[in-house]
Amino acid sequence: MPIVRIELYNGFNAGYRKQILDGVHQALVDAFHIPDSDRNQLMVEFDDDHFERSANKSRSFTIIEITAFKGRSREAKRMLYQKIVGNLKASPGIDPKDILIVVKEPELVNWGIHGGVCADETDIGFQVNV
User: Fold this and answer.
1) Potential cystine with 31: which of 79, 100, 104, 110 (Cβ 3.0-4.6 Å)?
2) Predicted TM-score of the model (pTM)
3) Are 118 and 108 in contact (CB under 8 A)?
4) Domain-located, residue 97
5) Pairing of strands 62-67, 112-113
6) Beta strand 112-113 with 117-118: parallel, antiparallel or unpaired?
């Protein structure tokens, strides 16, 4: 049940944006073993005067924040980063140096799911210890 927030510059077409959404989601399926149907993604676009980047980043600079259940191994996270970068390099063609990924892992008690139940008190439906 990761929540994905993707931030990028305004002005890219719908196909470009969809390729990013699909590439990040597929990486989560492959690395974190989430169900394919588990898509919770937000894409936020900024005008130039609301989004700054380092001088060594292009206009394709993309920030990907993933909030996920705690429990994935270092290896799963390493795989996730590599899959995201590889997927987005292949389609829509983002240079890996223009991708920044952050994973946040609040304790399960900090997730209200299944109608307002703490995630540590219910069956979440999949394994997070990968």
Assistant:
1) 79
2) 0.93
3) yes
4) yes
5) unpaired
6) antiparallel
